[in-house]
Every structure is written in structure tokens, then in C-alpha cells.
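The instructor's notes for this session suggest beginning with a concrete chain rather than abstract definitions. Hand out the sequence below and ask the class to guess, before any prediction is shown, which regions might be ordered.
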Amino acid sequence: MNMALFGKTAKQWRSENPDKKGNIRDDASINELICLSNLENINAMFINENIPQSERLIKLNQIAIHQMSVLQEVENRKYLK
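After discussion, reveal the predicted structure:
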């Protein structure tokens, strides 16, 4: 899930952020956490459909990009009101 949304593994994030405690999700925005939750559910469906991991990652990344775009657009509209 981290690769699909953040483009890096938890291990990579920890090595890039040695001063931070916790994990990549602790540093995520609310929109990223919403998207991550959605991706976890979609990934479970993909696993049930026997979709290979490499194909799941591509699809999940595309979904993450779209969802983050929609969530950002909603957030932007909220601030314009």
C-alpha cells in the first residue's frame, strides 16, 4: 500500500526520516489516510480476484492518484467557500 500511495516502502521512509518516530502513516495527511484505507479494501478485492502483485500495484497506484486528486479538489472547494 505504501508503494501505491507514497511511492516508497516503510523501510525507505524510515531511512529517509531517521529522526521521526513511528511510521509513514503517522506522518500522513487525513486525505492520504482516507485513500490508504480505500486502497487496502480494493487490494483485498484484487487478491480475491487472483490479480498478480505487480498488476495490483499498478492499478492501486492509478487509483491512488485519482483519489488524491478528487480529495484535494474537494478540500480546495471547501476553502473557497
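Then share the key points. The chain has one domain: 2-80. Helices lie at 2-6, 10-16, 30-48, 53-80.
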